[in-house]
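Researcher: Structure prediction, please.
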Amino acid sequence: MSHKRNVYLQMKSLDAARSVVMDAFAAGLAPGSETLSAPLAVGRILAGPVTARLSSPNFHAAAMDGIAVRAKSTFGAHEARPIVLHLGQDAFPVNTGHVMPEGTDAVIMIEQVQDLGGQAVQIEAPAFPWQHVRKMGEDIVATELLFARHHQVTPYCVGALLSAGRFAVEVLRRPKMVVIPTGSELVDWPSVGAGDIRPGQVIESNAYMLAAMVDAAGGQCERREQVGDDPEAIAQAIETAISRTDVMAVLVTGGSSAGSEDYARSAIATLGEVLVHGVTMMPGKPVIVGRASAKPVFGIPGYPVSAIMAFEQLVHPLIAAWLGQPAPTRTQVEVIPTRKIASKLGVEEFVRVKIGRVGRRLVAAALPRGAGQITSITEADGIIRIPASLEGINPDSPVAAELLRPAHAVEHTVVVVGSHDNTLDVLADELKSWDPRLSLSSSHVGSMGGLMAIKRGGCHVAGSHLLDEKDGTYNISYIHQHLKGLDVRLLHLVMRDQGLIVLPGNPKNIKDIGDLVRDDVCMINRQAGSGTRILLDYRLKQLGLASARIDGYHSEEYTHMAVAAAVLSGAADVGLGIWAAAKALGLDFIPVVTEQYDLIIPAEYFNSGPIESLKQSIRSDAFKKRVMALGGYHTERTGEVLM
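Model: Predicted structure follows.
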């Protein structure tokens, strides 16, 4: 079979693609029903209306401990004119929940009854009809509607169903789906030992993730064994799945884009028809919607974030429709982006962001936008949707964000913006031990980016290691220059060893910064404005070396771990970074300098509850011990207030 590339000739908007899915499949397929006992029906959707078989309560019941009386016999009772009643004649002792004696219609609480001895009691206030009595059917009346069709059964509903004599209910079956992972590069996680994965191999995760998402959406998913890049085998796997009467849809992961070995489209076309190939959204553009044997077949993109977006925007709404539920929605809040977020015209973009309350505003910092970066979803607090008609969003302009976490979570977030350091991950975990409500959100935009975030009121804390070339001090001169007029505190976090990260054994025999200009050496750099970039430029200036002579000077990463990963992968021979990053990935390290890494905190937040917890975490022995274990750190002055 010839290897042809797919071409997106007629991409549809997201709204148009969703309409295609709904028009083609929402009404034409039904999941059927099954009967479950009421306690086992929690979370399920009722197939039809449910009415009560019994009233609740099914008798007049005392609602208090005391005496049951006929209210009329108590009229006229007063402190000055008490009435005497006789037990067993016109007053009857009852406890809460007891059947009301015949002829009685009120209960007088025991606290309001005076025992005169023998069988006589005295009351000093009248009772009114049905006082402290639960009437028959007060809660539920036999034959009345308890729940309409398509109601989702909650734990509360179980109590009502059992009380009403509905011990079993008919619910919709969970829509059954099959997910088929494709790709010759995939390996299943049970077969992967510790670190036993070769270059070119990818651990199959999308199918497991999608199966869990189907289950969470109210469906039921079966994961099939992965299929290699063989169009006939893929088509056969789809046909086998779609032919089962209990299967309502098939998800094929991978093979949906424009590569020469992306066979999902041709396989679907062989079995039926392709309704949509390509949607104007990012991530998720290559998604396919097809039909075979009147059932939907979705080609889900291979990048994990694309897979998530394709499922949430097209598959989840279809499951909801089959179950008679409204399309899923998320809580929206107004946020202020801390930096400009650029976007491409003609494509609706889903930007993952971290969110936290700083002052009176919720601020949002964009996370990496690559469709292959699953952590951009796992770390995100929300999503900003940029319409296809816009080229981006300006900083400090209010915009809506869909929350991925409960609203209270973003209200208890310490927002850290600035230079990356591995100790921030340790700090995020230690902070939880001091106050479980708090979380730490760290965005890596470089030290200068952190200072600008403080200036704009976009964070609580900025991480910085800016070297003053004139006197060798860190951060203070930059604070005076760029944060003039702002009252801030400088809290020392760590001293750390910066140096050159190279492959084990240092195959290029790199010795110092001067070797970066060699013709056989390629480096990976940090972004402009980062303290590490400023340090490099300072050392190059000292040595009289032009950055233009360095191969890779303009190739940038935003974290020390990303620099180390670039060296490990062979994308670069060397990068300037911290020892902890080199140690974490088993790389060699050539020390260059021990530098100071501090936290800049506006005075208005410095004594607040969350920052107090942060300071306690930083000064704790547990934090210092974990930091030292990373390698290349010094904590003798950790937690000191420097200004």
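Model: The chain has a mean pLDDT of 92.
Researcher: Thanks, that helps.
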